[in-house]
Design brief:
The chain is of the alpha/beta class and 239 residues long. The protein has two domains: 119 residues, Rossmann fold; 111 residues, Rossmann fold (3-Layer(aba) Sandwich). It is built from nine helices and eleven strands. Helix 2 packs parallel to helix 3 and helix 7 runs parallel beside helix 8.
């Protein structure tokens, strides 16, 4: 059978929008969530003295919205998808960076006066060290959620790997690529990756994917979904 299907490894809450966008481009998608979003419980956030809020994912927006009713503070989003989630959640003043931690820090530094306090709505084991990137500001890192490993891959995803129809797997984080590898190994499907390309949102993610026997691991030219989709279109054009 001809390869042409796409594995989408995003968590269930985010995969639907990605799969719909890919379907509109003519791709047949298979959900293969490698992580599960877990909102960490806690009291309402104390936002006294906070000048703005930094968020690095749509999951962070959801976790933040669950812990505070306030929507008036400036919110700095890592990228446009996160910004869209924040606007949908009712945050009034939202600004998007270019898709990575460094651009988020530049955005905040260019707007927030030195020494102001920024609340970072962080995941457990955050990849972005915002405090290190903003030495002239006070960054209050508050862990609100975590991305836990999925227990197994869906049966449809395993069947697609078995029948050799998968063209590419999409990866949006280092953690997702690592957990995906563990799940594929657990299912004894590592050899099935040899004909699959790993398409990744950034070079660090591609580096994690290269630990697995993919046919190739490529990084998008920009850390945003549009660039990742361009990579997939190029792969399809290669035949």
């Amino acid at each position: 059978m001809k390869r042409g299907r796409v594995l989408v490894t995003r968590p269930e809450g985010q995969a639907a929008a990605t799969m719909a966008a890919l379907a509109a481009r003519g791709f047949d998608c298979v959900a293969a969530p490698a992580t599960v979003f877990e909102n960490l419980p806690g009291p309402p956030l104390d936002l006294a003295g906070i000048a703005g809020i930094a968020v690095t994912s749509a999951n962070g927006v959801a976790a933040l919205a669950a812990r505070t009713a306030r929507r008036d503070l400036p919110l700095f989003a890592v990228g446009e998808a996160t910004a869209t989630a924040a606007r949908t959640a009712g945050f009034a003043t939202v600004t998007a960076a270019a898709g990575d931690g460094a651009s988020l820090a530049r955005l905040i530094a260019g707007v927030a006066p030195v020494c102001e306090t920024i609340l970072y709505a962080a995941p457990e084991d955050a990849a972005v060290d915002l405090a290190a990137l903003l030495p002239d500001h006070t960054v209050r890192r508050t862990v609100l959620y975590r991305m836990a490993p999925a227990r197994s891959l869906p049966a449809e995803a395993l069947a697609a790997l078995d029948d050799g129809t998968i063209l590419a797997a999409l990866f949006y984080s280092v953690r997702t690529a690592q957990h995906f590898g563990q799940l594929v190994s657990q299912a004894n499907r590592l050899p099935a990756l040899q004909g699959v390309a790993a398409l990744c949102l950034s070079e660090p993610i591609a580096a994690a994917a290269r630990a697995l026997p993919f046919s190739a691991a490529r990084a998008a030219v920009r850390p945003d979904e549009a660039a990742l989709f361009d990579l997939l279109e190029a792969l399809r054009a290669e035949g």
